[in-house]
Design a protein that fits this description.
- The structure is a homodimer.
- Chain A has about 140 residues and is mainly α.
- Chain A contains seven helices and two strands.
- Chain A has a single domain (about 5-135), classed as Orthogonal Bundle (Arc Repressor Mutant, subunit A).
- Helix content of chain A is about 50%, strand content about 5%.
- A two-stranded antiparallel ribbon of chain A has the order 1-2.
- In chain A, helix 1 packs across helix 3, helix 1 (about 5-20) runs antiparallel to helix 5 and helix 2 (about 30-35) crosses helix 3.
- The first copy, chain A, is elongated and about 60 Å long.
- Chain A starts with 5 loop residues before the first helix and ends in an 8-residue tail after the last helix.
- The interface of A and B includes residues 4, 96, 98, 99 and 132 of A.
- The complex binds FE2/S2 (inorganic) cluster (2 copies).
- The site of one FE2/S2 (inorganic) cluster (FES) has 9 residues of chain A, from helix 6.
- The structure holds a DNA duplex (30 and 30 nucleotides).
Chain lengths: ~140, ~140
DNA sequence: AAAATAAAAGATAAAAAACTCTTTTATTAT
DNA sequence: ATAATAAAAGAGTTTTTTATCTTTTATTTT
C-alpha cells in the first residue's frame, strides 16, 4: 500500500509534467508525457481523458494538438487531482474502515487519524499544480522512473 | 483509496478485538471476532492465520481454542501489524511512485511526503496493540460497522 | 478410542485495479 | 477535398484484492 493509487500517482506526475511543459504555451502529446513520467501510454491516456473531461487539464485534437493548462488550471490545488482520481477516502471516513467516522462512536484510532488526515488534506489544499514547475525546469526535481 | 488496505483494516480491528477480549485470559474464536468487528469470517480467518504465523497473535486449535495474545504481543507496536499486512510502502519509497525516493533526484512532493510519512510512521510506532483495550472495555470506542 | 471443537490449509470465485490494443472523431495543414 | 495528426472512445486482457466454500489437522473432552 502506498498513499495514492497508481492511477493517481500517474495523474499527479502527468499534471506536473504538463504544467512545466505548458509554460511556453505549447501543447504536449500523450506519448511525450508518458515517456516523460515513465508511465504506460494507453493507460495514461485514459487517465488524462478523464482529467480533461473534468476540466483539470485542457486538450486539443489534431496536428499541434495535445494537452495543456492555462493560468486558471495551473492554480488549482493538488487536492482536485487526487479527489478526481481517488475520491475523498483519504480525508473523510474512518481510517479503520468503519462505515462512519464520528465522535460519538469512534474507532480506537479516531483521534490519531484525525491528525494525519488533516495533514494530508492541508498539504494537498495548499499546494497547487503550478507550484512545482520551476524546480522541474531547473532540473532540481524529477518525474521519471 | 484509504490509508490502509481492507485486509489491513480488518487486521487492526481484529487484533484490537482480540486484545480487549484476551485480558481476562481466555481465547476468542474466529466467528466471534468476525461478528465483533463486522468482517467476512473466512477472509478474516486467512488474515489471522497469517498474523499467527508471524507471531503477532497466538492461536490454539481444538475445544476452548481460539486466538489470544500475551503480555509480549500486547506490547508490540501497531506498525508491526501494518507492515505484516500492507508492507512498508506507506513509510518508505516515493509517494508519487518513482522507483526510489532520494534527496538527490526527488519528486516534486518529496519534502511534503517526508513530513506526512513520518507522521504516520510515528503514530504507528508509538501506539501498541494493547493501548486501546481500556476504551473498548468501557464502550467509549467501537470496532463494529 | 471416539466424538466434538476450532484453527489451518486448499481450492475457487467475484470484483476492482492496472494495463493493452484497436477504432473513431475532431482538427489542421496541404 | 485529402491526408496527416492526435486525442477520444471502445473493447478487451491481466493482475491484484477481496471474499467464499470445503477439507484437513490438531486438540480436548467424554
Ligand atoms: S471512527 Fe475511525 S477514524 Fe473516526
Ligand atoms: S522522491 Fe517522491 S517522496 Fe521522495
Amino acid at each position: 500500500m502506498s498513499i495514492f493509487s497508481k492511477t493517481c500517482e500517474y495523474a499527479i506526475r502527468a499534471v506536473f509534467f504538463i504544467a512545466h511543459r505548458t509554460e511556453s504555451g505549447d501543447r504536449v502529446g500523450i506519448k511525450e508525457i508518458a515517456t516523460g513520467i515513465s508511465s504506460p501510454e494507453h493507460f495514461l491516456a485514459k487517465i488524462l481523458q478523464d482529467l480533461s473531461r473534468r476540466g483539470i487539464v485542457k486538450s486539443a485534437k489534431g496536428p499541434n494538438g495535445g494537452f495543456y493548462m492555462d493560468e486558471q488550471t495551473l492554480r488549482r490545488p493538488l487536492v482536485d487531482v487526487v479527489e478526481a482520481v481517488d475520491g475523498n477516502g483519504l480525508f473523510v471516513g474512518c481510517g479503520l474502515g468503519l462505515v462512519s467516522c464520528s465522535e460519538k462512536k469512534p474507532c480506537p484510532l479516531h483521534a490519531e487519524f484525525a491528525v494525519i488526515r488533516k495533514n494530508i488534506h492541508q498539504m494537498l489544499v495548499k499546494t497547487s499544480i503550478g507550484d512545482f514547475t520551476e524546480d522541474l525546469n531547473l532540473g532540481i526535481t524529477n518525474l521519471k522512473k
